[in-house]
Amino acid sequence: MSHGFEMPGASAAPATVPASAPVAWLAAALGVFHRAAVLLAMIALVVTSAILTYSVVVRYFFHQPTDWQDEASVFMLVGVIFLCAGYVQSLRGHIGIEALAGILPAAVNRVRLFLCDVLSFVFCAFFAWKSWTLFHEAWVDGQTTSSTFAPPLWIPYSMMALGMSVLTLQLLVQVLVRLTGTVPAPVRQEAP
Fold it and tell me: What is the Cα–Cα distance from 88 to 68, expressed in whole angstroms?
């Protein structure tokens, strides 16, 4: 099912903010992080494309293999995926099964969405905790990949841990908003 992201004017609902001040503050802080993460992700995708293109050109035309491009690209893609997961969740853009949404009454559907958010929060909190333990082990033990390039594994584990922590916080905000409600967003006055 389409969420209508691609349609102009799809968000006709009035803008709202969390009713609870701490939740509103956390949502705003996450919004700042999301914007920075998306900007960095765009840059990382361009750099990854350049690295892979360089690798192909050097290997094909100059017969010089490179041993670092795959891991550098994978590390950047790990960062892109995990650091932007919270942003995608803030848009409710992750894959979901919407077959029940059209059948269930609105009140039951709200309960279903709340339970999905709570279960997702629990799962992501566990995943974030395990990611931080992987990061700690890689940092303390000085773990590296098994290639000749051998970059440290704490790099992708740190991005995975940070990304899962942000996703967990985003889910927490969504759960708390369902519990505390929202209020209309303040209207900004345009300067003449």
Answer: 30
- Beta-carbon contacts of 89 under 8 Å, excluding residues fewer than 6 positions away, are 167, 170, 171, 174
Kind of pairing, strands 182-184 and 16-18? antiparallel
User: 144 pLDDT band (50/70/90 cuts)?
Assistant: very high
Burial of residue 95 (CB within 10 Å: 0-12, 13-18, 19+) is exposed
Number of Cβ within 10 Å of residue 37's Cβ equals 23
**What is d(CA 140, CA 67) in angstroms, rounded to the nearest whole number?**
26
The answer to whether residues 37 and 90 touch, using CB atoms and an 8 Å cutoff, is: no
CA separation for the pair 91, 3 (Å, rounded) = 9
Give DSSP secondary structure letters for 66-118. -SSHHHHHHHHHHHHHHHTHHHHHHTT-S----TTTTTS-HHHHHHHHHHHHH
Q: Could you tell me which of 8, 22, 2, 12 has the C-alpha nearest to residue 176?
A: 22
**What does the CA dihedral 25, 30, 31, 36 come to, rounded to 10 degrees?**
140
pLDDT per position as a tens digit, 84-114: 999 999 998 877 767 777 888 989 888 988 9
Quote the DSSP letter at residue 184.
E
- Contact call for residues 127 and 164 (beta carbons, < 8 A): yes
Measured distance CA(170)–CA(164) in Å, rounded: 10
